[in-house]
Amino acid sequence: MKKEIIPIVHEAVLAAGGQHSLAKSIGVTPQRVHNWLRNGIPAKFVIQVAWHSGVSRHKLQPDIYPEEKMSLYQCENCGCMENTALGFYWTARLRNDEYKDKKLCSACGPTKSEDGRETPYGKWHGEFPRIYLPKGMFITDREGNLAHKLNGDTNFRAYAIYPEEK
Ligand SMILES: [Zn+2]
To answer: How much is the pLDDT for 9?
Structure first.
């Protein structure tokens, strides 16, 4: 018996520009993406599919990502507050030495990956007010909140600074 197409996977593939476009973006064969329509997305690709489609990882894989809530983090370059839905927290796959393993906001990352493909970086620059925080002073706690490194305070807005003060 042929399995049914999983609606949310179908939605994600369409939102990412179709099977070929999504396959190219994440570096797998279109056939592989096609298989996901009925078999589901393997855990190791969920984050990338969520990124390219805008469909949340929770919707794609509720067993692995039970919380809809987005994590906050601090950009290592400019110090602004960013969330995991907008910023490109997962930079390792770009394999670009300058940026590798850095947590960057959507405005600070490379706009092209090593092989010349466009990245999701740089696209939200200036579209909404950013909250800048003292650089290197905030970490993401277990609940996904930003917490002050020294005192654990999650009311990060109290530490906001103007960009000129960075
Ligand atoms: Zn930044």
So the answer is: 95
Among 1.10.150.120, 1.10.260.40, 3.65.10.10, 3.40.50.300, what is the CATH number of 7-60? 1.10.260.40
How much distance in Å is there from the Cα of 63 to the middle of ligand 1? 31
Tokens (6 digits) for 148: 């002050």
Read off the pLDDT of residues 42-60 as tens digits, 9 standing for 90 and up: 988 998 898 888 787 888 8
Structure tokens at 115: 């092989």
Q: How many CB atoms lie within 10 A of CB 57?
A: 21
Ligand 1 center to residue 51 CA distance, Å?
A: 18
Q: How far is the centre of ligand 1, averaged over its atoms, from the C-alpha of 24 (Å)?
A: 27
Q: Token pair of 91, please?
A: 């930079």
pLDDT, tens digit, 9 for 90 and up, residues 10-46: 999 998 899 999 999 899 999 999 999 999 999 889 9
85 alpha carbon – ligand 1 mean position (Å): 14
Assign 88 to helix, strand or coil.
Answer: strand
Task: Compute the distance from residue 105 Cα to the ligand 1 centre, in Å.
Answer: 4
